[in-house]
Write a structure and sequence with these properties.
Elements (H helix, E strand, L loop, with lengths): L2 H28 L1 H5 L10 H30 L4 H23 L5 H19 L1
Helix pairs in contact: 1-3, 1-4, 3-4, 3-5, 4-5
Length: 128
């Protein structure tokens, strides 16, 4: 398996972890009965619960761009140093982004996000 496909698989695994953190934050903030129910009348989310939801949504958005490009590169037989580096930049920046976002650290989060976007664009440019 190429490094690009490996990074895609790892990125999906990271999404599973982020969703588990989001679910746990919801249970801690709202209680298990509320989260296991219809969720129609949930209380105000805690700041961490809100951040964990935003992290999950942001990672899904990143994967929406990254995954098709990796799959297209794989189908086209394109695997270069540039695509491998792009995939690694995406994955490792997404780990950093999640940690930074969940910790609530200001200013540095957009940098981690931008590095992931650069990695995605590297794969796109290799395909064009």
């Amino acid at each position: 398996m190429t490094i690009e496909l490996t990074m895609l698989a790892y990125s999906v695994g990271l999404l599973v972890i982020v969703i588990a953190i989001q679910a746990t934050a919801g249970i801690l903030a709202q209680g298990l009965p509320a989260m296991a129910g219809s969720r129609d009348n949930l209380g105000e989310p805690s700041p961490f619960q809100s951040r964990s939801k935003r992290v999950a949504e942001n990672h899904k958005e990143g994967l929406l761009l990254f995954a098709p490009l990796v799959l297209a590169a794989s189908a086209a037989g394109v695997s270069t140093e540039m695509t491998a580096l792009g995939a690694q930049l995406f994955f490792y920046s997404r780990i950093a982004h999640a940690v930074i976002y969940l910790a609530g650290w200001p200013w540095i989060r957009p940098l981690a996000w931008a590095i992931g976007l650069v990695g995605t664009l590297m794969i796109l440019f290799a395909l064009l």
